[in-house]
């Protein structure tokens, strides 16, 4: 299986399965001398881990990261950083009923067709549990880019949408509720709706808004390595993501060019930011903001029709511990992938200085 690495200069390779002994990764290209704050890394992991509230999966995992290489006396050495997160609460028997059948909208069928074999326990490598390794690497990338601010929050659950522009929100309130929406009233409505969906044995999707501030001018490369293109690829690599837009996004098609253009101030900033902080594929110093759409979790705790390996129609029911809505736990993942993209481009920009 290929496709387990992300990045070029700041490169992450992940390993592990949902019900294996551990997940982990190797970070190659992190500069020497970076003083790592392990508590900050663990904090981001805690924001992603299961069992943290009543509206997420109740799998109980400490998700404690252990760093095995690449550091000495609290600082990075410039050599590969190896780390692991051990699984402690697997319940593989919850998946025995799908050993010979395929869950709708999961990777089960295509894995069997492509590889001729699959780990059916929690989806194996296709499980969103793999993203724990991304959060560790992203937390280190954030520390490398200490002047850049990465914030993500839930802006929509089902039809409940946060209407307040991101620049009118208090990001310190993101962690004040289990939904991770910075508007208390909207967060309460979202939480109640997720609880109702959970009682029905069903799931619901949502949207996460990402905001990156204090971005230096000049990150990104023209043509195929545009900054927004790499951000889009990063977000679309996250489990359950079905869409990505940045800046004015799809709403920009409703505007004329004279309305959409961002006029310059004398210092190079712009009076508006419909470009979303990226012009010509290169950061212009304005805020980068984007939205990431997540589908409803495919596993529903209801009876459903599917097929088995022989192609026969069967009826079965979802079992196990699953998120009724994935977006609250995906917030730190969106931040992590944002940081990985910018860290990669930042290292590249250091080699392209005039």
Could you describe the 3D structure shown?
The protein has 354 residues and is an alpha+beta fold. Helices cover 25% and strands 21% of the residues. The chain is built from 7 helices and 16 strands. It has helices at residues 38-48, 108-115, 131-144, 184-199, 227-236, 257-260, 327-350; strands at 5-6, 11-16, 22-28, 65-67, 71-72, 75-76, 81-86, 149-157, 160-161, 206-213, 241-246, 278-279, 282-283, 288-294, 303-307, 313-317. The strands form 5 sheets. A 5-stranded antiparallel β-sheet has the order 1-2-3-7-4, with helices on one face. Strand 1 and strand 2 (11-16) form a beta hairpin. Helix 1 (38-48) packs antiparallel against helix 3 (131-144), helix 3 (131-144) crosses helix 7 and helix 5 (227-236) runs antiparallel to helix 7. The longest helix has 24 residues, at 327-350. The protein is globular. 43% of the residues are buried.
What topology does this entry show?
Elements: E1 5-6, E2 11-16, E3 22-28, H1 38-48, E4 65-67, E5 71-72, E6 75-76, E7 81-86, H2 108-115, H3 131-144, E8 149-157, E9 160-161, H4 184-199, E10 206-213, H5 227-236, E11 241-246, H6 257-260, E12 278-279, E13 282-283, E14 288-294, E15 303-307, E16 313-317, H7 327-350
Low-confidence stretches: none
Radius of gyration: 21 Å
Structural class: alpha+beta
What's the shape? Answer: globular
Overall mean pLDDT: 91
The amount of helix comes to: 10-25%
Q: How many E-type strands?
A: 16
From the structure above, extract its key features.
single chain; 354 residues; globular
Care to give the gist of this entry?
The chain has helices spanning 38-48, 108-115, 131-144, 184-199, 227-236, 257-260, 327-350; strands spanning 5-6, 11-16, 22-28, 65-67, 71-72, 75-76, 81-86, 149-157, 160-161, 206-213, 241-246, 278-279, 282-283, 288-294, 303-307, 313-317. It has 354 residues and is α+β, with helices and mostly antiparallel strands.
